[in-house]
Fold this protein.
Amino acid sequence: MKTPPLERGMTPLTIGREEFRTLGHDLVDRIADFLDTLPDRPLTRGESPEVIRGLLEADAALPEAGSDPAELLRTTADLLIEHSLFNGHPKFFGYITASPTPIGILGDFLASAVNPNVGAWTLSPVATEIEAQTVRWISDLVGFPRGGGLLVSGGNMANLVGLLAARAAAADWDVRAGGMTDAAARPLRVYASAETHTWIQKATDLAGLGTNAIRWIATDSKLRMDVSALRATIERDRDAGDLSMLVVGTAGSVSTGAVDPLFDIAALCREQGIWFHVDGAYGGFAVAVPGTPPDLEGLRLADSVALDPHKWLYAPLEAGCTLVRDPETLRRAFSYHPPYYHFGVEATNYVDFGPQNSRGFRALKVWLALRQAGREGYVRMLGDDIRLTERLYALVDAHSELEALARELSIATFRYVPTDLDAAPGSAEREAYLNRLNEALLDRIQRSGEAFVSHTVIDGRYVLRTCIVNLNTRVEDIEALPEIIVRLGRETHAELGGTEG
């Protein structure tokens, strides 16, 4: 077969300037209309995987010939706008996924156009310095000392970076070379409350410690870590010859928003010489808001902190952040290069401070939003989310068919309880039925398109859970939610037979 002549002027992916401008304007107009009409749309269509795969013709072969980009963008926009679940919808209260800031949406567009690789300063001079400034501003916002840090994909990775920094700092052998099978190795132990997010299992697994390295510490009646139990566990491990590596304090648990006694944990870690890490992926930013739990202030005493700008800074996904008191701890955990100097000063190469080599420009969307809103704007927005949750909790508590359980930060938990249950309050029969009822109710709510909530389990009770990290939520959305839940709850109760059996 004869090889065709090399003609590189036009490629199958080339889009000319004027066509690009037209396509871009059309897409921006479509996105603007979508954002404007979002409150009036169903939150989701509740479609099955089979339906979505059918829309995509998921089993079709890769097309042999290409397609027109204008038609591709139109049909893809239709696909996403008509068949997604919208976490920017004002009645989205599920998990801890924020509505995206408009400036963040545009920031991602601009970042993709320049396409810097923020792994090396030479490949991304301005982008690297914007990320460094973003890290400093995030530190300022939460009152953490300006040490160092970097942006990562999300909370799991932010916490993993902190854990790996602690591993390098704690091991009294060359753990990076010899790993956990080195002749001098000792078992490394990690301490976390029973309310800690499941990132801890992933992180100990990936770090080679194994999940058996985790010491699960009991919690008190408010689901906060029991520091006396923590001390006793550390002492037992040290008596056994183990090496206490890391204590994780939670600044806003995923289930209920509980905040561990961070000051007491910090004091114990200083006394025992143990790395103190705070998982503030959800609640850490709330430390800037007056009236939030005083223990949040204790995150400022940590050796490392995990935060998620794509949660309570409303950045589009993905944007996590690890802060460290001493930036050299990251270099000792990740770098295989000497410091790099450019123009006579050390340049920041983020490849030396985290697990990635190639890194996208995550910082731009966060940096732009921080500049647009400022500290004052963010304090007000976070405070509004908390006050909306307080309002919702009060409405739930006042409703005869809803049982309020807990509220902290912008998380509220409650369950639907029909008024016609015969079983005695607290009986095993009644609790089993309420668990089954509320689990079925959650599925109905999520498929309804009217609102979206999630769930958690508190003392064996399956309960509904709302978390507001949503710029688009208004008081009227909050006031509508209890009646939506009660109406769907009555329907679910009737379908289950209307009894506790």
